[in-house]
Amino acid sequence: ENCPTPEGQLQYGCTPRAHFDSFLWGFITMYHILSGENWNVVMYDGIKAVGPASVVFFFFVVVLGNFVVLNLFVAIMMAKFDESSTTIREKEKAIATMRSSFLPNKPNDFAG
After folding, report:
1. Residues 56, 61, 62, 66: is their CA dihedral positive or negative?
2. Region label for 8, one of left (φ > 0), alpha (ψ between -120 and 50) or beta (otherwise)
3. Most exposed: 13, 71, 90, 95, by fewest CB within 10 Å?
């Protein structure tokens, strides 16, 4: 495969930007895949490098990775809803306490 160089000449056998040759680049490549941005290009590069069996790896990474990311998003949303619910309950309790201190306990207390 030909890769362009800064001088405009062609270089043979270059490594694509997203690869698994080191831990750092593997981590960055996994983030790239899980973000959903152009992950199919990484999969095609994997097919060229390893063979058609790499499709199974990419399928599981995309499906399971998106499942994990979705669950993290839902967990964060649920935590925020719980926090908001607790805050609203505390405010309602404070309002009820304030009302009970100003209003009489029995409705007939106003009757003369």
Report:
1. positive
2. left
3. 13
pLDDT digits (tens, 9 = 90+) for 17-39: 788 888 998 999 999 999 888 88
- Of the pLDDT bands very low, low, confident and very high (cuts 50, 70, 90), residue 1 is very low
Helix (H, G, I), strand (E, B) or coil at 3: strand
Q: How many CA atoms lie within 13 A of 21 on its CB side?
A: 8
| Residue 14: strand pairing partners | none
Do residues 54 and 20 lie in contact, with contact meaning Cβ atoms separated by under 8 Å?
no
Alpha-carbon distance of 104 to 94, in angstroms, equals 17
Does residue 80 have a pLDDT over 90? yes
pTM higher than 0.70, yes or no? Answer: no
| Spatial contact of 49 and 18, defined as CB atoms under 8 Å apart | no
Contact 25, 56 (CB under 8 A): no
Alpha helices in 12-53 (DSSP H): 23-34, 39-49
Nearest to 37 by CA among 16, 60, 66: 66
